[in-house]
């Protein structure tokens, strides 16, 4: 399936109080997605390989190598440590994972001792790593050994309060005080967390929202390959590059033309390959095709395109996963 031919661009919606939309200073709020005309790296947009946001802070990676980090104060910090596989932006810090398995803490200007990591997750309270054999580590100080907290995991994500350890048929919800688990009837392949919320994708591209020790399916979406979470607002990219948003909307961060909240996913952009959600804004990287996550069932893309060639979001309901 081909993504529509969209020129490389940064598209933004929501609050611009901190200049996080990279548009005219007099623009305080935009209720629809507009082009970020003041983005300082416009000629390099097609080379953006990763983007991550936390509150008003954001980090971009160009060519899997060079990181540009802009915290809330608006000052851009540039650094590089090696070829990057993943990035997690925090309020005043960036955690990066290299392809050689090393994890770097930008604030500490140092690598963690534990190596051989294949996936990371981070919030203001947790920094985690997952290795190729399924061991989950909790990182502390960079000069201290990481703490092993679980085995046989396939993916991880976290919020400010909870760690989600994904296994073949269950999810463990872990905190510093205790842990609990629940079984799943579908195989989860990826998780995405913010300060308060978490979303999950299964092998068929179904999207699930964590709520009160259960996963609730988000309906009204084609197969999803990437998601982002803000503070009670959500964004998802389908296999064909369509961007959908829904949820809390006081600053018009959904880009749907108003500040009304929506339980229904809205189709807001085409040609989207990356998306990030801040507290009150959404930023999309357009131009090119989204990356398909490992473990995704590619046959569902063909099936969805045949069954729903002009699919639009019209319903939203919840269904218990277990």
TrEMBL record:
Superkingdom per UniProt: Eukaryota
Residue ranges of RCC repeats: 241-288
Pfam families reported for this sequence: RCC1
PANTHER family the record matches: REGULATOR OF CHROMOSOME CONDENSATION
Name of this chain's protein: Regulator of chromosome condensation family protein
Species for this entry: Trichomonas vaginalis (strain ATCC PRA-98 / G3)
């Amino acid at each position: 399936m081909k993504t529509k031919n969209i020129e490389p661009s940064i598209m933004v919606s929501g609050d611009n109080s901190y200049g996080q939309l990279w548009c005219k200073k007099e623009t305080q709020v935009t209720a629809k997605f507009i082009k970020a005309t003041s983005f300082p790296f416009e000629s390099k947009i097609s080379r953006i390989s990763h983007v991550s946001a936390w509150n008003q802070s954001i980090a971009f990676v160009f060519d899997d190598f060079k990181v540009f980090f802009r915290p809330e104060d608006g000052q851009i910090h540039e650094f590089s440590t090696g070829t990057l596989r993943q990035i997690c932006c925090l309020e005043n810090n960036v955690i990066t994972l290299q392809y050689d398995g090393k994890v770097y803490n930008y604030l500490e200007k140092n690598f963690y001792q534990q190596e051989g990591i294949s996936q990371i997750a981070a919030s203001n309270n947790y920094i985690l790593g997952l290795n190729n054999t399924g061991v989950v580590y909790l990182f502390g100080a960079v000069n201290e050994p990481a703490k092993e907290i679980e085995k046989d995991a396939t993916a991880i994500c976290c919020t400010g309060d909870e760690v989600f350890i994904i296994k073949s048929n269950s999810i463990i919800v872990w905190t510093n005080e205790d842990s609990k688990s629940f079984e799943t009837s579908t195989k989860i392949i990826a998780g995405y967390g913010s300060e308060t919320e978490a979303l999950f994708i299964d092998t068929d591209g179904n999207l699930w929202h964590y709520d009160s020790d259960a996963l609730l399916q988000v309906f009204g979406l084609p197969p999803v390959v990437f998601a982002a979470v803000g503070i009670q607002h959500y964004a998802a990219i389908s296999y064909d590059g369509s961007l959908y948003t829904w949820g809390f909307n006081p600053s018009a961060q959904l880009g749907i033309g108003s500040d009304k909240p929506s339980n229904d996913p809205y189709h807001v952009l085409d040609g989207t390959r990356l998306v990030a959600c801040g507290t009150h804004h959404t930023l999309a990287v357009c131009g090119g095709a989204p990356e398909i996550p490992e473990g995704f069932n590619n046959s569902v893309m063909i099936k969805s395109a045949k069954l729903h060639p002009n699919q639009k979001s019209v319903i939203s309901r919840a269904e218990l996963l277990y």
